[in-house]
Amino acid sequence: LSFGICLADSDRTSEAEALLSALLAELDLQFSSQHEWVLSCVDKLGELARGSGSLAQAERMFRRAYEARTAPVAEEELEFEENEVANSAYNLAICLAQQD
């Protein structure tokens, strides 16, 4: 995950997207949709999609993160910080506004 984020931050977008997409597929098999690594990957893929103008894809990613963070918590020890929920809502709102 860190390497994918590093690639994205270094403007190596296509490499980052390929790596993070493959990673997300693996993480989806291993963890719940509310797991921190899954949501970090989803958030970064949403940012990459928004940055490349793929707003529909960005919306799917941001909506997935928002819904996971606002859904009833599946694991007792798992609780999201208010700022994580707020960031998910903000990313989704910006993406929706850019589509209008």
Written overview of the protein:
There is one protein chain. 76% of the residues lie in helices and 0% in strands. The longest helix has 18 residues, at 13-30. Helix 1 runs antiparallel to helix 2, helix 3 (36-51) runs antiparallel to helix 4 and helix 4 runs antiparallel to helix 5. The model has no long low-confidence stretch (mean pLDDT 88). By secondary structure, it is mainly alpha-helical. The protein has helices at 2-9, 13-30, 36-51, 55-70, 82-99.
Secondary structure elements and their pairing?
Elements: H1 2-9, H2 13-30, H3 36-51, H4 55-70, H5 82-99
Helix pairs in contact: 1-2, 2-3, 3-4, 4-5
How much is the radius of gyration in Å?
13 Å
Helix and strand element order: HHHHH
Helix fraction by DSSP (H/I, runs of at least 4): over 70%
Structural class from helices and strands? mainly alpha
List how many beta strands DSSP finds: 0
β-strand percent reads under 5%
**Main beta sheet: strand number and arrangement?**
none
First-last Cα distance: 32 Å
What is the tally of helical segments? 5
Keyword list:
100 residues, mainly alpha, 5 helices, 76% helix, globular
Summarize the model shown.
The chain is an all-alpha fold and 100 residues long. The chain contains 5 helices and no strands.
